[in-house]
Specification:
8 strands; 8-stranded mixed β-sheet; 9 helices; single chain; globular; alpha/beta
């Protein structure tokens, strides 16, 4: 968190609004629903286009379901979840769940998607080692989140350079796109910006609840109670730095 000269914590700036297209890139089904779907619901209500890109189908996420059966189940839940918040395009890269590595191949796949969809805003998840602050601490982050988050930050630049992955032009006809203006990271403990969570909160709750198979094995609580408490609790925490309004927090890297 950024402290001001008087020792208080700096307020969060409002998220940029002068954009029309966003691409959200995460590792697994449910990552966006745990992080920022309340903001996405509000953005799509305002006429903006948001596309989801998932590196895996989440096939290793449920111990009691074989990956071959789990992948199509979680894909279907993700598509239903996205529809609740106004997202109609959901793409999967088919990297293996749980063992994603930061690599040139991953960067290339994400850069290709950026060139296809030509977003001004790219969204991803916490790319750092822990869920703690900039100096560490907190729960250890998963390898998949770290790899995809870091690769997304890098791919936002790769997408605009014709000499990086030139095969995207010659083999796929994907010309460079240098129009990414911001990469916004959700799930960070060092946020800089926030979006109002109020208008989209109820739909974000419904959206996360579409991940029925996953939530059933994740908690013994009533699913709606668990989801509502988790999402509203996070939004209330961000409110202290956003004028008292419940919020979805992001760390924004301008480009």
């Amino acid at each position: 968190m950024t402290e001001q000269l008087d020792g208080s914590v700096a307020p969060l700036e409002p998220m940029p609004t002068d954009w029309q297209r966003a691409l959200a890139v995460v590792a697994h089904p449910d990552d966006l629903e745990y992080g920022c779907s309340a903001a996405i619901a509000d953005w799509t209500d305002g006429g903006r286009e948001v596309v989801y890109l998932l590196a895996t189908r989440g096939e290793a996420g449920i111990d009691t379901i074989d990956p071959a059966a789990c992948a199509p189940l979680r894909e279907a839940e993700q598509r239903a979840s996205a529809a609740v918040v106004g997202v109609s395009t959901v793409e999967f890269l088919d990297h293996r769940d749980g063992v994603i590595e930061y690599s040139l191949g991953l960067r290339r796949d994400i850069a290709a998607a950026i060139r296809r969809h030509r977003p001004e805003l790219v969204i991803t998840m916490n790319h750092r080692d822990t869920w703690g602050g900039a100096d560490g601490g907190g729960w250890w982050n998963t390898p998949d989140h770290k790899a995809v988050g870091r690769a997304t930050l890098d791919a936002a630049g790769d997408a605009g350079n014709r000499w990086i992955f030139p095969e995207l032009i010659t083999e796929q006809g994907l010309e460079p796109w240098d129009g990414v203006r911001w990469v916004a990271v959700s799930g960070t403990t060092t946020p800089t910006h926030a979006a109002d969570a109020g208008p989209g909160m109820e739909r974000s709750i419904k959206s996360l609840m579409e991940h029925k198979a996953y939530i059933e094995v994740l908690t013994d609580e009533d699913p709606e109670t668990y989801v509502r408490d988790f999402l509203t609790g996070n939004a209330r925490q961000a409110a202290a730095r956003f004028g008292g309004r419940s919020a979805v927090a992001f760390e924004v890297f301008p480009r």
